[in-house]
Amino acid sequence: MDFFPIFFDIKQKPCLVIGGGEVAARKVSLLLKAHSTVTVVSPKLSRELADWHEEGKLTHIARDFEDADIDQPVLVIAATDNRDVNKRASELAQARGIPVNVVDDPALCSFITPSIVDRSPVQIAISTGGASPVLARMIRTKLEGCIPAAYGRLGALVSDFREKVKAKFTNVDQRRAFWESVLDSTVADRVYSGHEDEAAEALQQAIDAADSNPKFKGEVYLVGAGPGDPDLLTFRALRLMQSCDVMVYDRLVSPAIRELVRRDAELIYVGKARDKHTMQQENINELLVRLAKEGKRVLRLKGGDPFIFGRGGEEIELLAQEGIPFQVVPGITAAAGCASYAGIPLTHRDYSQACVFVTGHLKDGTVDLNWPALAQPNQTVVFYMGLHGAPTLCKEMIGHGLPPSTPVALVQKGTTPDQKTVIATLDTLEETLRTHTFEPPTLIIVGEVVSLKEKLDWFNPEDPQGQAVKAGRW
Ligand code: SAH
């Protein structure tokens, strides 16, 4: 984050605008909307600024900028076409700790102004950190289209009732639950259809009828977050991520996905890296129970699918035992995600009629798997957690009858910008692992389908544009 977003109260406070042209006028118009006391320093004023001056909306100092002008204001905007003047104003303001913006000159700014969607009292500010104002405006246009103007009126209604609701519900979680139910009810519909009086009446009734101390029931959402790319989340996963009170997550959940969880949800990290479990599984199970019993909506976010090598079953067993409500949301498992993004169909009529997902995690250095069943022709075998034991896995597959030339793919951090794929064969994999460094999470795909990658590869994480071109979409 290059800039820290804040909303600044400048009501009745002095703001200085240096420059009197069209650009300055745009800024002055915003400052006036925020009810600040605006002074414009400029020998001349644009027609619009002159009108506002005549209407008594601003003070005009009709001369060039002087150093002493910087003494008063809480905010400075420099919009002259003389860079030296802008620079001088910026330096003086920054030396005094006064926030300053120089229009179209990021190097001289201590703050930048966002694109704004104004549904007062609701304000949405969009910034690309100066990277692309055009992109910010495009996003704004989209939001303008999909956020009804009535949201502003809804915000105003809520504001009128805030104190009443605060007095009724002393518990923050209960208060939030009340507002969530109200804002998704006929109260909001009434506002949207222009019936504010009825909406206010309905809201008052809802407050009167609500139990001020309800038995607030917690719930656990066991949610699959997919293999890494946030675009692969399900709608339901996203909805629950944005409504939870607390998130319990582990290492496999990518930062890009964690970003999408409700901002003020509490975050609890529980591990796990191989051999150094941050929290024992039993403790995680108990943690979920405890949080839910506190009345919280608990998001247990897991990489991939929670029921595929995710110990999701164990986690909800205890919840079921304790009578705690829960729901399970499937996710795209690593095998599906990595195979797709590596251009390897897991089944194919000509090569493979079956696909097996198996854990390659070695207990005490040995793998206790049904090797004869795994080492079958016309079958794809996907090893999860197999990186550490890969040489053993390959030896066993060969030892149980698969040709040593059977192709193998290693996919590291599949579906993310760090995806790396290397192709080997059962008898060269050990050597490949010596020459390439791989980090977890890495998936191993064994079977003839791997050879299709050469033809079907489409995802190039280093060239996001190329991905689509290769895939023939554009
Ligand atoms: N529940 C998860 C699997 C958890 S087991 C799922 O359904 O995907 C952890 C193993 O999954 C890792 O050791 C690795 O083999 C595999 N894995 C998970 N995410 C991966 C990714 N983005 N890229 C490659 N392998 C991944």
UniProtKB/TrEMBL annotation:
Pathway: Porphyrin-containing compound metabolism; siroheme biosynthesis; sirohydrochlorin from precorrin-2: step 1/1; Cofactor biosynthesis; adenosylcobalamin biosynthesis; precorrin-2 from uroporphyrinogen III: step 1/1; Cofactor biosynthesis; adenosylcobalamin biosynthesis; sirohydrochlorin from precorrin-2: step 1/1; Porphyrin-containing compound metabolism; siroheme biosynthesis; siroheme from sirohydrochlorin: step 1/1. NAD(+) binds at E22, V23, P43, K44. Keywords: Cobalamin biosynthesis, Lyase, Methyltransferase, Multifunctional enzyme, NAD, Oxidoreductase, Porphyrin biosynthesis, S-adenosyl-L-methionine, Transferase. Residues 218-474 are annotated as: Uroporphyrinogen-III C-methyltransferase. GO terms for molecular function: NAD binding; precorrin-2 dehydrogenase activity; sirohydrochlorin ferrochelatase activity; uroporphyrin-III C-methyltransferase activity. S-adenosyl-L-methionine binds at P227, G303, G304, D305, I308, T333, A334, M385, G414. GO terms for biological process: cobalamin biosynthetic process; methylation; siroheme biosynthetic process. Residues 220-429 form the Tetrapyrrole methylase domain. NCBIfam families: cobA_cysG_Cterm, cysG_Nterm, PRK06136.1, PRK10637.1. Then it catalyzes the NAD-dependent ring dehydrogenation of precorrin-2 to yield sirohydrochlorin. Finally, it catalyzes the ferrochelation of sirohydrochlorin to yield siroheme. This is Siroheme synthase. The gene is cobA.
